[in-house]
Amino acid sequence: MEVIIGSLYDVFSLNNIIFMILGVTLGIIFGALPGLTATMGVAVLLPITFGMEPTTGILFLLSVYCGGIYGASIPAILIKTPGSPASAATIVDGAELVKKGKAGEALRATVFASAIAGFISALILMFVAPQLAKFALKFGPTEYFAIALFGLTMIAKVSAESVLKGVFMGFLGMFVAAVGMDPVSGVPRFTFGNVNLLGGLALVPVLVGLFAITEIFIQSQTAHVISKPKQTKILDKPESIWKLFKYWKTIIKSTFIGTFIGMIPGTGAPLASFLSYNESRRSSKNKKEYGKGSMEGIVASEAGNNGVTGATLVPLLTLGIPGDTVTAILLGALLIQGLNPGPQLFTEHADVMYGIMIGLLVINIIMFIQGRVASRLFAKVTSIPMNVLIPILITLCFVGSYAVNNTIFDVKVMIIFGLIGFVMTKLNYPLIPMLLGIVLGPIAEPNLRKALINSNGDWSVFLTQPISLVFVVLSLLTIFMPLIKQFILRIRGKKAAS
Fold first, then answer.
1. Minimal CA–CA distance to 444: which of 136, 347, 381, 452?
2. SS3 state of residue 417
3. Is Transmembrane helix one of the keywords (predicted)?
């Protein structure tokens, strides 16, 4: 108890509060600028922490991380461009809400869902970290593939107008993800002799091109603003925040999905976001609203990806296994501070561990306050004239794409995918299925092949492992349930007619 009280005093010291506020602010900026991700923010700011106290340094980096994950939702909603892959699913309904003049409501909803999910994820880290970490270690290639397969079933959900076009775009996305070195054999594929393609196509330039540049091409054909100024006015009524509590079931469910995914090394926020959105749509009473401006949809997406933030620290702190790229950087930060991750960390450095876990709760409160206060300013982006906004967006896109690997090749990739996205949009081919293929393909393919190698080509391995069986069944239900429902309704209709 003395250790916890001491950690409380440490977390709420003026120095730590200042660095947490600064970290969240910088994180939101990194997340909100297309091409500059939370991972990049943590990596760039890591050297600053070398001279700090361990608790202060780690909390500062966690603030940047949490702020970055939330910040990515801002451009996803306002300019139909995810600040990072973590908020890619938010595009589906975010852009439609802006068209309806609900930019402010959407921004309030995302910060509310993000903060609640992050807070719950931090509580889970605090109380059940060791037990959850042991369960997550049971995941192998079969389980990873089954989860990715479940995420890919969303292609059918977001392709209501033409499932065939959606499936085609999904396969196109997986083809894009397959460019580079074969993850199993190490043989180059689809590189066409270009050394720049050996490492694959960087995700950020592809996403920026596919959504930001495509949207710029589309918007440049018109002379109006994204939405009318009077529509984006945010009425900060006291009761407005309470209205969001009607989505509490969606937030809780998506948070637990994000927490579950976050504990599994190698998955991350993008998968959690899509799975949460998919599950929310599947269980919603208002399925028809999804893809057309569903507030519940963006709440699910953002709760899912922010639910990862605390959970991804579970395998890192308890077992020394980084869950994603951000925690890999945090692992380096811990080692530099003389903290060796593992079970002994909670006994030898209990004060620092409790400080990190308590601080993570405070970080999400700070993030909520900043998001609420600044949402009024964010929403005003939607009333900026296009002749002013487009040059700014183009500059940010070029800088963001170049900054990933400091190479002009990534800028060329961005432009090419911008043209692809523009043409496909004009031909009424949905871009979201392609995005799903790009994000989930690298998880599905290598794990499918590894699972088959381990089982000597026996496909039944996906049905004999309990966890993978659950996700395979869920995938089949997601695909065939609408058909089953239609069949049942037809039978009932015939009986009623007779």
1. 452
2. helix
3. yes
Question: If you average pLDDT over every residue of the chain, what do you get?
Answer: 81
This prediction's pTM = 0.68
Q: What is the mean pLDDT of residues 323-332?
A: 75
Q: Report the candidate in 51, 3, 39 with the shortest Cα–Cα distance to residue 322.
A: 39
Any idea which residue has 């401006």 for tokens?
Answer: 293
Residues 6+ apart with CB under 8 A from 303: 113, 114, 116, 117, 250, 251, 254, 255, 258, 276
Which residues have C-beta within 8 Å of that of residue 74, sequence separation ≥ 6? Answer: 28, 31, 32, 83, 107, 110, 378
Please check the confidence at residue 396 and state whether its pLDDT lies above 80.
no
Amino acid type, 166 = G
- Which residue(s) pair with 189 in the sheet? 180
Alpha carbon distance 356, 152 (integer Å): 35
List alpha helices for 455-465, DSSP H. 461-464
Burial of 53 (0-12, 13-18, 19+ CB in 10 A): middle
CA distance 471 to 200: 28
Please check whether residue 355 is in contact with residue 55, taking contact to mean a CB–CB distance below 8 angstroms: yes
Least confident of 116-130, 248-262, 292-306: 116-130
- Rounded to the nearest angstrom, the gap between the alpha carbon of residue 319 and the centroid of all alpha carbons in its chain is 24
Please say whether the beta carbons of 339 and 283 come within 8 A: no
Q: Where are the domains of the chain?
A: 1-224+247-492
Q: Give Cβ neighbours of residue 93 (< 8 Å, ≥ 6 apart).
A: 290, 291, 292, 293, 294, 295, 297, 298, 301
- The encoded tokens of residue 76 equal 């996803």
Instruction: Identify residue 206 by its one-letter amino acid code.
Output: V
Cα R_g (the chain), whole angstroms:
22
- Residue 189 has phi, psi (to 5 degrees) of -145, 140
